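Fig. S4 source data, part A: sequence.
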Amino acid sequence: MKKQLGVAIHGAGSVARAHVASWQRSPYATIVSVSSQRRESAQRLVDEIALNCTVHTSFDDVLKDERVDIVDLTGPNHVHAEQGIAAAAAGRHLLIEKPMAISVAENRALRDAVALSGVKSVVSFVLRWNPLFQNLKSLLAAQTIGDLIYVEVDYWHGIGPWYSGWDWAHTRKTGGSTMLLGGCHAIDALRWFAGDEVVQVTAFSNNTKGLYEYDANVVAIMKFRNDAIGKSSTLFDCQMPYSFNIDLVGTDGTLRDNRLWSKRLLPNQTDWATLPTIMPDSGDVNHHPFDAEVNHLAECILENRESHCNVADSFHTHELCLAIDQSIARGGQPISLPLA
């Protein structure tokens, strides 16, 4: 395997710019092309950052470019699965923005296409590389709070027409749903911290402002295979700063965001211990740890190993989001997983 991997950026929005900046800092890769649905938007990105690369006019041209090892998909939600399937069939490794699919059929088709092709993949649940997330996973692995009995993760982000992707994000056809647009970050975190899969979920929603074609505010309660219980909510109509809430309750202690209470580790504790770290407290894509994410994918390719955040794993995050949407559509009816 050659040392420098060729990266094709497909999509030219704000997330693409954050990805480009991280690939530019990576010792493993070189950006060889930028493409978009509109040539002028791709050319604008190339000119703004002074990239020395090709501007492709179609996705087919991207896949035919022999310099391309990795396709980085950052376009609107509804094109991710189709483009990911085509890239996998062409033998290109994948970095794919969330959500990777907006329907049950797409979710399964992308999973199967990547498995068949054998390419490496990372779905951009980028908070898995956030320092607080890394600390929490380490504490859980060390049994600092014992066995988990309750997991709660919330994504509260007042998204409205100011958002650069609003035109496609607020519709069912191209945005999907509240859980798929943003709540999937919380659902993925919930699964990752729990280290287990949900077997049943019930969800309710409302839509106080009417800005979205789907309900903007969702709460879901769930049961895991190991009998732990969980809850997740996503609020787009909230009036407050961005907030990503994490509560992990165990048999011997509790983690609340960056605060620790541990009977096992600190038997004489009189107040919460605070972990000094970088918090997941901003919705700004420039705050996200994309550097670690892109380097992780490159290392997985070069070392021929699978990512913990690949398409096969992310399939379960998306399936849970889609089950939540099904429960809402059925008036809060419990939905069993895996989906039939």
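Fig. S4 source data, part B ends here. The domain at 131-282+318-336 is CATH 3.30.360.10 (Dihydrodipicolinate Reductase; domain 2).
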